[in-house]
Amino acid sequence: MKKKIAMYWGAGCGGCDVSLLGIHEKLLDLLDDIEIVFWPCATDFKYEDLEKMPDKSIDVAFYNGAIRTEENEEIAKLLRKKAKVLVAYGSCASEGCVIGLANLYDKKQIFNVVYLQNETTKNEDKVLPKEHANDLGLPKFLPHLKTLEDVVKVHAYIPGCPPMKPVLEEALEALLQGKTKFGKEVALCDECPRKDSKPEKIEIERFYRWHEKEDNGDCFLAQGIICMGPATRAGCGGECISANIPCTGCMGPPPKVKDQGAAMLSAIASLLGDMDEEKEEEIMDSIRDMIGTFYKYRAAKLLPEGRLKDES
Amino acid sequence: MSFEPKIVAFLCNWCAYAGADMAGTSRLKYPANVVPIKVMCSGRVDPEFIIDAFEKGADGVFIGGCHPGDCHYVNGNYRTRRRVKMMKKLLEEMGINPKRLRLEWVSATEGQKFARVIEEFVNEIKELGPSPWRK
To answer: Which chain B residues are within 8 Å of A294, Cβ to Cβ?
Structure first.
């Protein structure tokens, strides 16, 4: 019997939906074994179709994107009810991803930037989204961005922004066989295309942002360019590195690491060369954006309730 | 009731923990808000530990290590110094007062210093009030 599959997008960019097509011919093989019962991005299904399905009738439901609005949350709960296995697909659903950085700001600040202050936004009448207009209601914008596991129980996670071909192939195969554990346990450095150029001992003298230095093709960290490889899960094949771009950590931490940013911060501190305290201060101040650098994909995990307010 | 902060103190086996012992055997008094955790080296204190402590309800985290140049493992305390600096920057970005994280060098003979810095730290945290960072 064909396995019933559903795919839904929450607050995301749509890249995850497209990434499913990124497995190319493999998708054709897959289509012999699966039946797509719900996929708003690609096929015409309405929410009421999903509501009418019997509970637990979907074999595997993929949820990509984070939970930003009431609608996202409602469908997450509905899918949870209708599916046997619910999978957080991609970085947004698993850990909040880049849009999780919005948790550093509140709703008012976000709306101001998005609808009013953005240079490319033309909004002379200063129209902001409302929750009600005439008889129509719009889903509420939640105070903080949540990940799928903050709302419902999740069985499996497919990491990546979006999940890369090798990760996806392995994950789909495992999930269709009823397994929920898959993926590598080691860090990206293990499969890095620049692995051989990593010196025995890295000693960073100063940090460069990657437009500030001519890349000599060696290990990025050895060049003083922050690369999240040591704290990031392997599996993607290091595609960014192959394109001469350091890893920013979209695969999340390896399974045995709890906090990717803290792990990377710790690694960076041990990679600095010998220097006095003054120089140390200077070199650390050159990292301007700690959360954006070390928690680019996990800010929603670090600050689930938004930026903290320490009185005084 | 006045606010009694919870403080987690990571103390290195060779200097700061021995310093705390010295404070005890010298019968020095310091506030009882501190929960000491012995680690082999202050360099063992992973930033994850600090985050974990705050998430589990610590109002302040104290790290005690050997004086620069005195580390039993040669350079563990230098790494700690760097990690703490980076953690302070991170705390600030998160909206937490970086004063809630404190690193001090305490040698095995500095029982008095240990008692003094703990008292200072506890008073500082009392002034700051409870930490908003809890899960």
So the answer is: 90
> Per residue in B59-90, pLDDT tens?
999 999 999 999 999 999 999 999 999 999 99
**In whole angstroms, what is the distance from residue B59 CA to residue A102 CA?**
26
Q: What is the CATH number of the domain that holds A70?
A: 3.40.50.700
Q: Are residues A149 and A261 in the same domain?
A: no
Q: Determine the distance in angstroms separating the CA of B78 from the nearest CA of chain A, rounded to an integer.
A: 9
A276 in Cβ contact with A42 (< 8 Å): no
The CATH architecture assigned to B7-128 reads 3-Layer(aba) Sandwich (3.40)
A52-70: string of b/e by CB count within 10 Å (b at 16+)? ebeeeebbbbbbbbbbbbe
Distance from CA of B110 to the nearest CA of A (A): 23
Residues of B in contact with A312 (CB under 8 A): 97, 127-129
- Does A131 reside within a domain? no
A256: which chain B residues are within 8 Å (Cβ-Cβ)? Answer: none
The per-residue pLDDT for range A57-69, each reduced to its tens digit, is 999 999 999 999 9
User: Does the distance separating the beta carbons of B86 and A259 come in below 8 Å?
Assistant: no
- Cα(first)–Cα(last) distance of chain B, in Å? 24
**Predicted model pTM:** 0.92
pLDDT at A31: 85
